[in-house]
Amino acid sequence: MHVFVTGATGWIGTAVVGELLGAGHEVTGLARSDTAALALAKTGARVRRGDLDDLDGLRDGAIDAHAVVHLGNKHDWANPAENNRTERAAIETLAGALAGTDRPFLLAGALAGLVRGRPALETDVSPAVGPDSMRGGGENLALEYVEKRVRVVSVRFAPSVHGAGDHGFLAAITAAARRHGVSAYVGDGTAAWSAVHRPAAARLVRLGLEAAPAGSRLHAVAEEAVTTREIAEAIGRTLDLPVASIAPEDAAEHFGFVGRFFATDMSASSTATRELLGWTPSGPTLVEDIEAGAYA
């Protein structure tokens, strides 16, 4: 397949591009800067210059491809309304370009806020509906295109897609530990995150693109639940820092934007995903990656 990828030079996108190329697919990646374009070209992928606000470019990229993988996101935590607007417009443009073709459209989803009190399942429907909801209700918006003959697949990524070079949530939590001289968790530290090693997540994206049925919700999850206290203790051991609890009301000040996520349970099962696609995640665990110095 010829696959058009947004977010192609991001943390997950870079691994996905490599996975797709390694499996014999052709890739065109969206690049908004000269640096990103050069890095993408070095992988052997084609480059389409533009960004998520270039709707004409997104439409043309989708029309020219056999499949679309939408991983791009502005991640503007200070302006969620703009994030939501951009996400909805991109989904409507990309999926709209594929309408009536039965071609695959795979997009990045999230596990936050799906359920409370138990690990999330693939059958759990996202409560995020409409432009004012988390990520603009993008997953549910995209799934509406199944009825328009688009093979929509949502991949809900674990909050920690970990590995050396990760600059996401775990990097921010580690930076807070360095800044304050203490590796902290929130409350009693029993909130738990699911986790997956980055190459395993990229492999799931490829498998989902190749074989997942229309309307599938896949969970890129290797470890169902790693408690936030376990994460803080691993960071403390690695940086030789004390480990302590902080009150929930102090989480935002201590951690910054990631504080509200670190206090939230985001655990999930991937049993149905593994059975559907024969996916067996491999690689180090989250704690093993931390202790090996991936965030040091």
From TrEMBL:
Pfam families: Epimerase. This is Nucleoside-diphosphate-sugar epimerase. Residues 3-211 form the NAD-dependent epimerase/dehydratase domain. One of its GO terms (molecular function) is aldehyde dehydrogenase (NAD+) activity. GO terms for cellular component: cytoplasm.
